[in-house]
Amino acid sequence: MIVETMVFYLFSAIMIASAVMVISTRNPVHSVLFLILTFFNAAALFMLTGAEFLAMILVVVYVGAVAVLFLFVVMMLDINFVELRQGFMQYLPAGALIGAILLIELAFFSVGHWVSAPDADAQRALAMPAAGQVSNTLALGRVLYTDYAYLFQLAGLILLVAMIGAIVLTLRQRAGVKKQSIADQVSRSRGEAIEIKDVPTGSGV
Amino acid sequence: MAEAGFWSSYAWPFILTILSILAMVVPLLVAVAYLTLAERRVIAAMQLRKGPNVVGPFGLLQPFADGLKLLFKETILPAGANRMVFLLAPMLTFTLALIAWAVIPVADGWVIADINVGILYLFAVSSLGVYGVIMAGWASNSKYPFLGALRSAAQMVSYEISMGLVIVTVILCAGSLNISDIVEAQRDLWYCIPLLPMFVVFFISTLAETNRSPFDLPEGESELVAGYFVEYSSMSFALFFLGEYANMILMSGMTTILFLGGWLAPFGIAPFIWIPEVIWFLLKVSLVLFCFLWVRATFPRYRYDQLMRLGWKVFLPLSLLWLVVTAGALVAFDWLPAAGGA
């Protein structure tokens, strides 16, 4: 048990330290790299609680895809960070307010206790298989695809709309762009492609 | 009392794990070394040359000569490079190529960690490979590496999607995310037969994922010198090199596990099952690796827009379609695997 606790504190400490580094390093690329380290440690914490599926999905989705795009954008954009920092004092009150609200919520949680809705209690009281019997991938799948199938579909639709929206917003037709059209190339006939000329001697084409 | 508990529950498992990791990593590194030799020899044979045959019998000591040479070269840190990230990138590439082997079973039960979500772990680790490349390209603070890194990042992210869909198809058929279960599910029929189009898509995607020819645009020497590792020298270069080859072996291992029945003997009949399982696994991996080399000796490099077109407009719809068809067939003919407890 002591080893698990030590491992938990190790990952938590690295996670908090790297989360602090995300907002305190000057180099934005370093920030993103620390963010990735934070994700990793979060995945490790999931792993410690036995939520292996969530841990892997966190790594695949956030580290493997989202953070890559983040890094991509941050590396390529030439952002002037001195300029960004100038507005710091202006945003401080709003930021402090949000931070304070979150802190108070956390304090309520740690001082008081959870009050859960009766429905949720009933859900939790349902026969739940022991941890060893059903893997959490299977358990998640059962809940997601039987009880919450419509909500799951709805979430998928929202993502689809977001994706189409992003594509529509960024798609622009520029003039003068040469693109390969394989159908055109393949369907080209001999007559369009070459022309045979009878060149008289001495005069050229 | 407490000490006995410590020894039996932590110390011995820890030592055993270290030993099994060594038993996996040492042969892997030797395999990586000889893969570099095999690549040169195979391509030489295909081009009617001899290849490196001077150092040791049949050139067998050539990889070690190359390794020693790289070891004794000077490590150069470019003046404009971002030191930490520059040094971290090759280590990351190499480490990622090694840690994926934790879940690969080379024979029944011969695996370091037989975890429930093994195939997801493999997918996660292989999707992280892009970081080594993109970090190297950015930290070098130089044009060619950066261009190479951008190309590579876009390429690897694109082909990961079709790879993921192919993996989902296999998981559908096997009914488990556990790699050993996936292999066991192929006891009667290897998935390369019913899922042949997916097998081809997966193999080509692995070529793109490992930045191998004909998709080796990130390091296309004709336009980018050597792509993302232009600025690397000595051991940091060697780590990239080893990582790339270890990734090749890893991807061959994944292909073997997903489609070629892992360690299972073909047909499961008498003369084949006398051969040990681990030998079968190695033979299959070698076969896929040979195809990697064969492709390199045969095909010219893809153009970048064609590469993107192939990934997004051909493989993605094809694998999506095949996923739906597979799911439909499994439901229609009642072939769905029983929901595995594990």
Largest sheet of chain B: none
Count of DSSP helices of chain B?
Answer: 12
Average of the residue pLDDT scores of chain A: 83
Identify the overall geometry of chain A: elongated
Number of helices of chain A: 10
CATH superfamily of the domain at 1-92 in chain A, by name, is NADH-ubiquinone/plastoquinone oxidoreductase chain 6, subunit NuoJ
Please count the beta strands of chain B (DSSP E, at least 2 residues each).
0
| CA distance, first residue to last residue of chain B | 34 Å
N- to C-terminal separation of chain A? 91 Å
Task: Please state roughly what percent of the residues of chain A sit in beta strands, choosing from under 5%, 5-15%, 15-25%, 25-35%, 35-45% or over 45%.
Answer: under 5%
Mean pLDDT of chain B: 85
User: What's the assembly state of these chains?
Assistant: heterodimer
Largest sheet of chain A: none
Please write the string of helix (H) and strand (E) elements of chain A.
HHHHHHHHHH
Strand content of chain B: under 5%
Secondary structure category of chain A: mainly alpha
Spans of chain B of at least 5 consecutive residues whose pLDDT stays below 50 are: none
CATH domain class of the domain at 1-92 in chain A: Mainly Alpha
Determine Rg of chain B (CA atoms, Å). 21 Å
The CATH architecture name of the domain at 1-92 in chain A reads Up-down Bundle
General description of the model:
The complex is a heterodimer of chains A (205) and B (342). Chain A is mostly helical and 205 residues long. Chain A has 10 helices and no strands. Chain A has helices at 2-24, 28-48, 52-76, 81-86, 88-111, 118-125, 136-147, 149-170, 182-187, 190-193. In chain A, helix 1 runs antiparallel to helix 2 and helix 2 runs antiparallel to helix 3. Chain B has 342 residues and is mainly alpha-helical. Chain B has helices at residues 2-46, 62-71, 83-99, 118-139, 143-174, 179-184, 196-209, 221-224, 234-259, 270-273, 277-298, 304-332. Chain B starts with a helix and ends in a 10-residue tail after the last helix. Chain A binds chain B through residues 3, 27, 29-30, 33, 36, 52-53, 56-57, 59-60, 63-65, 68-69, 71-72, 75-76, 133-138, 179-180, and chain B through 10, 82, 85, 115-117, 120-121, 123-124, 127-128, 130-131, 134-135, 138, 146, 150, 153, 157, 160, 177, 305-306, 339-342.
